[in-house]
Design brief:
53% of the residues are buried. With 647 residues, the protein is mainly β. The longest helix is centred in the N-terminal third of the chain and has 11 residues. The protein is built from 1 helix and 62 strands. The protein folds into 2 domains: 461 residues, Pectate Lyase C-like; 138 residues, Exo-inulinase, domain 1 (Jelly Rolls, Sandwich). The radius of gyration is 26 Å and the shape is globular. The strands form 9 sheets. It has a 15-stranded parallel beta sheet that branches. InterPro entries: Beta_helix, PbH1, Pectin_lyas_fold, Pectin_lyase_fold/virulence. Pfam families: Beta_helix. Keywords: Signal.
Length: 647
């Protein structure tokens, strides 16, 4: 459909776009027409392409050659690479030969769209391997690259990716990963503008998930050690947007922004990273970039304490903002702040949620911080965990405000501090539970913060109850956001933590299942409490195919049901109901199979609405329904963190 629209637009201008067809199952190499398609991608690089031309790969076929594009389009007429054929067939697959390091290479050209292709690149884990490589060398400004709806998997680059001759492998120049965007060269300043990376699924790749790099990086703010990694003066890329991507089982880093100004990274999910790298990797982060914004992302399952935390404000950065993000169950912790020999400046970390992140909540590397603000975050530390709340080497100048946050510790273990910087300002935070006292803290609130359902992982569990001492207790922080995590205006209620709404009701009941009990629930079929299948702390309920799980609720004019669900396959027919209103999980796409998804189902006198994984989903009427009913359908369904509240 996109190709047809582009072609019609060009015809109106008197220029006919040309379609080049490729069919990996064709017996012989044709002329590129639909009736006589090419059967190899080897000749793409030699095509005489014009703006608006389309490279069309037949659905349901495989290509065992790299696709290398060296011709670009225009702002109104891009070159488009996409499928053709039966929409019911699988995406076309592009898999490079062993000697080809990148399955899809976009080389020094502008205005290109690549969409709806499956990409893989097997290897021996001893060389660079890339799914999609957007590369420009001595090319000046490269504009308008879009990578959309790709399924990239089994890219087997450098792993483990520790160090060679003192330098990490699989990153920096010539990196390995699912999507790598690199500005190279030494003679003509080279940079990207308006690159869009959206709605891609990336899994089982090494080393990087989505990664950007530039050789045009030297400036006064650059940490000294990078002068051994890049050689040319600063020409940053701009207009980068990374949104709506789903990454899982990543060998190293999830998403990394380097060499950019004003990049926006939002609505992405990274599940399990630093998985076998052997090096230091984090979930989502920036280095040598200014004014980066990271929001509405979810990161979990980070492995090891070699970093292993969700988010990172790294060296040579200024103006970085992390807001409205969720982090949970990362072995390394929540946040890394890593300035090295040049101060990291003017960063903001606000309205985020951390649940059961392990070793460190905030870790600071060697180096100074200037103008940092960490405020209105909610941090939950569960049973058996003993992280450092803030840990930093001695003798640093850490100009940071830590204010208006909630930190709640429950169960065994204790939260500590390793911090001696007098510039680190700890003011008006709620510290509840077994948390060591920081001598420099002022105005702390130590009463129970009054959270709706502490210990769960869904954001609604951390709204504030009516009567909470965190309501209306915050100090003003200059430059505060206009809205909180939930969209509430921050001016209405000056609360501690990431919730700025009014007090909420105590839930009718809460089921986290960590005690191994199904008390209060009725079941049919095979239903059991098992260890969390994603490796998160605690236990979950597993409902086998055909099984159900039900529980009553007290009638009220308005109710909200929250639950985490994990389907074992798409189209399973699973459902979750509240009274006479039901949400089908049958539409869960393959990218979300095996991932925990937060479901919110709200019923009021005006009707019902639902959100699954942050996106609205349909609510259907259910005859004769009452209470909460969860049905597995034709496949196994896991359920956790269920609660119902009267609104």
């Amino acid at each position: 459909m996109v190709a047809i629209k582009i072609s019609l637009a060009l015809l109106c201008l008197g220029v006919a776009a040309k379609d080049y067809h490729f069919d990996g199952s064709a017996a012989s190499n044709g002329d590129g027409s639909e009736s006589s398609p090419f059967n190899t991608l080897a000749g793409v690089r030699d095509l005489h392409l014009s703006p608006g031309d389309n490279i069309l790969l037949r659905r349901g076929t495989n290509f065992t050659q790299a696709l290398e594009l060296r011709a670009g389009g225009s702002a109104t007429s891009p070159i488009t690479i996409q499928p053709y054929g039966d929409n019911g067939s699988a995406r076309p697959v592009v898999a490079a030969q062993p000697a080809q390091l990148s399955s899809i290479l976009i080389d020094s050209v502008s205005h290109v769209v690549v969409q709806d292709i499956e990409v893989t690149n097997r290897g021996d884990n001893k060389t660079a391997r890339r799914g999609v490589y957007v590369y420009a060398k001595d090319a000046g400004e490269v504009k308008g690259i879009t990578l959309r709806g790709l399924y990239i998997h089994n890219v087997e680059g450098y792993m483990p990716s520790t160090t060679t001759r003192g330098l990490p492998v699989g990153k920096y120049a010539n990196a390995s990963g699912g999507i790598v965007i690199e500005a190279a060269g030494n003679s003509t300043p080279t940079y990207f503008t308006d690159v869009l990376v959206e709605d891609n699924v990336i899994e089982a790749v090494g080393r990087q998930g989505i990664y950007t790099w530039t050789n045009w990086c030297r400036r006064d703010a650059l940490a000294q050690f990078w002068y051994t990694l890049c050689t040319q003066n600063w020409y940053p890329s701009t207009g980068l947007r990374i949104r709506g991507n789903r990454l899982s089982n990543i060998g190293g880093d999830g998403i990394v922004v380097k060499g950019h100004v004003g990049a926006l990274t939002e609505g992405n999910r990274v599940t399990t990273f630093n998985n076998g790298s052997g090096g230091n990797n984090a979930g989502i982060w920036a280095a040598n970039s200014d004014d980066s914004v990271f929001r509405r992302n979810v990161v979990s399952g980070g492995k090891t304490t070699k970093d292993g935390m969700s988010y990172d404000v790294d060296h040579s950065t200024s103006g970085t903002v992390f807001e409205y993000n969720v982090s949970h169950d990362n072995e390394g912790g929540f946040f890394l702040l890593c300035p090295y020999d040049k101060p990291t400046r003017n960063f903001t970390i606000r309205y985020n949620l951390s649940v059961n992140d392990r070793a460190r909540v905030f870790q600071i590397c060697s180096g100074n911080l200037v103008g940092g603000k960490i405020y209105k975050n909610t941090v939950i530390v569960g049973d058996g965990l003993s992280p450092q709340l803030v840990t930093a080497p001695k003798g640093l100048s850490l100009d940071v405000l830590l204010a208006d946050n909630i930190v709640r510790k429950s169960g065994a273990g204790r939260v500590g501090w390793t911090l001696d910087s007098p510039q680190f300002n700890v003011t008006r935070n709620a510290f509840y539970g077994a948390i060591d006292t920081y001598a420099g803290a002022v105005g702390s609130v130590t009463a129970a913060p009054g959270l709706a359902a502490p210990g769960l992982r869904g954001p609604n569990a951390y709204r504030l109850l009516t009567g909470s001492p965190a309501l209306g207790s915050a100090i003003d922080v200059s430059g505060d956001a206009q809205a909180d995590f939930f969209g509430n205006p921050t001016a209405a209620h000056k609360n501690l933590g990431f919730y700025s709404g009014g007090g909420t009701n105590v839930p009718q009941w809460i089921s986290a299942f960590d005690d191994g009990s199904l008390s209060g629930w009725s079941t049919t079929g095979a239903v059991s409490v098992v260890a969390d299948p994603a490796g998160d702390l605690g236990k979950s309920v597993q409902v086998a195919a055909g099984g159900t799980l039900t529980r009553g609720v007290t009638a009220a004019p308005s109710l909200r049901l929250d639950a985490r669900v994990r389907v074992s396959r798409a189209g399973s027919g699973a459902s979750v109901s509240l009274g006479t209103h039901s949400v089908s999980l049958g539409g869960v796409v393959p990218a979300d199979v095996g991932a925990w998804l937060v479901l919110e189902l709200t019923v009021t006198a005006a009707g019902a609405s639902a959100v699954l994984d942050g996106k609205p989903v349909a609510v259907a009427a259910k005859t004769g329904g009452s209470g909460v009913a969860i049905a597995a359908g034709q496949a196994t369904l896991c359920v956790d963190d269920v609660f119902v509240v009267s609104l």
